[in-house]
Amino acid sequence: MKKFGLRYSGPYLAMVPGMLLLLLFSVYPTVFLFKISFQQYSPISAVNPFIGLDNYIDVFQDHNFWNALKVTFIFVVSTVILEFAIGLVLAVILNRLTSGERFYQSVVLLPIAMAPTVVGLMFRFMMNDQYGIFNYFIELLGMSRTAWLSEPHLALPALIVTDIWQWTPFMMIILLAGLKGLPDEPYEAAMIDGASSWQSFRYITIPQLSRIIYIALLLRTIDAIRIYDSIYMMTKGGPINVTSTMSWIVYDRGFKFLDFGYGAAICIVLLVIVVTLLTLVLKKFDLFEVEGRS
């Protein structure tokens, strides 16, 4: 009887360490974050009084929050669309290579092997208005030097370019894996019917790849919303808050001004936005529907 019980409880016992780690590093921090969002919480204060919804009211009345929401929206939409477009082109090209494919894949994937802080520091040097390589090429074209990270109208595009350089390979490798898994039969039938390459791509490749595309876009969108490393290394949220995203104002208020309650409220708002986005996308496209289910 003991052997029988151990046999069927074994898989559950094996899950215990993982569940404990999940509780420790995911569930508990989320519950704690939710709790302090209703407090005037500071790590250097002995008393952290309950203030109800005051932090949330302050968040929605703060123009910096709405500016950060706008900047985050512009950044996410711009990077995700461009990364998808460039990644799809690269995936199609690599999928059609007959030799040297692994070498070119390795070269293209190099950016995502680098830490975001390293990429941010590298682009900060490259975009320096005195000795940056960007300005070197601009001068070769006969134009004057540009302060990429100091000009309000150029700082956010500079961040977008940096993000595209690093994370386009992520989009590419997901789409390439999807292309590798597509069956050959529809293409052979289309070729017999006289379909062009563009028609095959438009009416066969894209529909069959749709779920992979939705998942890639969703994963990259969630990740882009959380951008912080590049901002810290390149612009520090400036100039005049044009690169201040949601993640940056959480750091700015929470860790620079030690207003953890306010920062926690912003985190909860951001969490609600991400969960809502995730729910709407999964519901609209039913990404995890079992194939063939009615």
Detailed description of the structure:
It is a single chain. This protein is an all-alpha fold and 294 residues long. The protein has a domain at 70-231: Orthogonal Bundle (MetI-like fold), CATH 1.10.3720. Helix content is 73%, strand content 0%. It contains twelve helices and no strands. The protein has helices at residues 2-36, 54-61, 63-96, 101-109, 116-126, 133-140, 152-180, 185-192, 197-225, 229-234, 246-256, 260-285. α3 packs across α7 (152-180) and α7 (152-180) crosses α9 (197-225). It starts with a helix and ends in a 9-residue tail after the last helix. InterPro entries: MetI-like (IPR000515), MetI-like_sf (IPR035906). This is ABC transporter permease subunit.
